[in-house]
Amino acid sequence: MPQNSEISTALPDSVAKNSALFSSQRFSIAPMLDWTDRHCRYFHRQLTRNTLLYTEMVTTGAIIHGKGDYLAYNEAEHPVALQLGGSDPAALAQCAQLAQARGYDEINLNVGCPSDRVQNGRFGACLMGEAALVADCIKAMRDVVSIPVTVKTRIGIDDRDSYEFLCDFIGTVAQQGGCDTFIIHARKAWLSGLSPKENREIPPLDYPRVYQLKRDFPGLTMAINGGVKTLEEAQEHLRHLDGVMMGREAYQNPGLLAQVDRVLFGSTAPDADPVAVVRAMYPYIEHELAQGTYLGHVTRHMLGLFQGIPGARQWRRYLSENAHKPGAGIEVVEKALSLVADKMTAEV
């Protein structure tokens, strides 16, 4: 999809004014492979105007040598960051320049993914063991772009998980690379023996370690990631840190994003209404269908919208059973919405 799509959403003045109070890094949605694609991001933007959205991790090789347009996004997604995977400073710099030219608001380097495939490509969490190389990568990108270049990382890898190791990594990348913003997943990563899923669940969370890191590096912007499930938890983290990144909860229960602008960014605009959000998606869906996109590729991200609301199960079931059928169109979404809207009306 071209970057400058005719389907877009402008920020209401009231929200735009409030967003100036805080950096978009204050609350963000984690980059998640196979999840946070452009359809997901467009949908999430209907729920929250201020949250920083991230692309899935895109490798430098895909951008430079791939046949598809791996930088495609919709103007309505702003603020939006591109997460890159790679370890070659020259290739990363080339991709950063391309991303800035396309209008991305931030470049983020993945130093947190523990999968074998990523390690074989010499990027992701294994780079925590090569702080000087990470610093070179960041500097190479910062030298050619004016937008922020940030790092998403872990608190350690394998048996290299001491606080001193973490401080050495952060200090090297900040001082030698010029990186001033880090998103810290508050778990270490096991580079062998655990799957990516297990690496998100088995290593224990250590929030106090990330809090201490901010105290020891007060001049750096630091956001925390890992296990955040509620906005109340996000508020607690913000007592200690500059930002919070939410992952799977934001995807599986996207309805909570409707409160983010008010609760975390101080917006005075009303929370997004889930029924209105679905209807706001209609022009986008129709545009995508006309481009040959299957309905299910968009609606799969919307399944959890009504979690906790009467009719949510019927909404999920109808979309799941019908959105992937050949020729499925907007009428499938309208029917699914009627199932939940009728329940909501009956409750009132």
UniProtKB/TrEMBL annotation:
GO terms for molecular function: flavin adenine dinucleotide binding; FMN binding; tRNA binding; tRNA-dihydrouridine20 synthase activity; tRNA-dihydrouridine20a synthase activity. Belongs to the dus family. It is an enzyme of class 1 (oxidoreductase). Keywords: Flavoprotein, FMN, NADP, Nucleotide-binding, Oxidoreductase, RNA-binding, tRNA processing, tRNA-binding. This is tRNA-dihydrouridine(20/20a) synthase. It catalyses: 5,6-dihydrouridine(20) in tRNA + NADP(+) = uridine(20) in tRNA + NADPH + H(+); 5,6-dihydrouridine(20a) in tRNA + NAD(+) = uridine(20a) in tRNA + NADH + H(+); 5,6-dihydrouridine(20) in tRNA + NAD(+) = uridine(20) in tRNA + NADH + H(+); 5,6-dihydrouridine(20a) in tRNA + NADP(+) = uridine(20a) in tRNA + NADPH + H(+). InterPro entries: Aldolase_TIM, DUS-like_FMN-bd, DUS_fam, DusA, tRNA_hU_synthase_CS. Its cofactor is FMN. The keyword Mitochondrion does not apply. The active site is at C113 (proton donor). HAMAP family: DusA_subfam. Catalyzes the synthesis of 5,6-dihydrouridine (D), a modified base found in the D-loop of most tRNAs, via the reduction of the C5-C6 double bond in target uridines. Specifically modifies U20 and U20a in tRNAs. Its EC number is 1.3.1.91. FMN binds at P31, M32, L33, Q83, K152, H185, N225, G226, G227, G247, R248. The record marks N110, K197, R200, R313, R316 as: Interacts with tRNA. It comes from Pantoea alhagi. Residues 29-338 form the DUS-like FMN-binding domain.
